[in-house]
Amino acid sequence: MRVMGVDPGLTRCGLSVVEGGSGRQVIALDVDVVRTPADQPLPQRLLIISDTAEHWLDTHRPDVVAVERVFSQQNVSTVMGTAQAGGVIAVAAARRGIDVHFHTPSEVKAAVTGNGSADKAQVTAMVTRILGLQQKPTPADAADALALAICHCWRAPMIARMAAAEAMAAEQRRRYAAKLKAARA
Questions:
Q1: pLDDT digits (tens, 9 = 90+) for 14-29
Q2: Fewest CB within 10 angstroms: 3, 19, 36, 170, which?
C-alpha cells in the first residue's frame, strides 16, 4: 500500500509518501515541506499547497492519503489555516478517487513511539529508526508527515476490519428490519 502522509500547515505543510509492505515493513519514497510566504494572501497560499499536493498525487499515485486531524482550543487562526491546508489536499485526493483518512496527533504518536504524548524529538527519532534513514528528516513537519504515513500503514488493516464489521452490522440490521416488516404484513 502506498500512503501519502500530510502534516497540514499554512506556513509549512509536510508531505511524504511511503510504501507499506508485509507486517510493519515501511519504506520512505519521498518527503518534502511546502512553504508559503506569510505576506501572501490566503487564497494564493492555499493555491501553492494545492498545486504541490496535486503534483504529488499525480506523480506518486498513492492508494490513500493520511492527514493529521486538526483540533485546538488555543490559537483559532492557526487552526483555521491548518484545517484549510488539509482541506485543499483532501479535495485534491477526492477528485482522484483516493481515500482520505484523518488521524489525531496522539494516534500518530502512539503508533510510531508507543506513547500518545511523545514530543517531536521522540517522533523524529522513531521515524528515523523505523524507516532506516541515514539522517533525521527536517524540519519537524517532514518527520510528522512520515509519521502520519507510517501510522496509516500500520492501522490500515484494523481500519479495514472495522469497516467490514460495520458493513456487516448494517446489513444485519437491514435484514432484521425487512424480516420484521414482512412479519407484520
A1: 999 999 988 789 999 9
A2: 170
**Residue 119, annotated ligand binder?**
no
Is-cis flag, bond preceding 139, omega within 30? yes
Burial of 151 (0-12, 13-18, 19+ CB in 10 A): buried
Residues classed as catalytic: 7, 68, 141
Residue length of the chain = 185
117-130 tens-digit pLDDT: 999 999 999 999 99
pLDDT for 34-83, tens place per residue? Answer: 999 999 999 999 999 999 999 999 999 999 999 999 876 566 777 888 89
Contact 4, 57 (CB under 8 A): yes
Give the Å distances, CA to CA, from 130 to 39, 46, 124: 37, 32, 10
Name all domains of the chain by residue range, CATH numbers in brackets: 1-159 (3.30.420.10)
Does this model's pTM top 0.85?
A: yes
CA 151, CA 111: separation in Å to the nearest integer?
A: 5
58 is in an annotated binding site: no
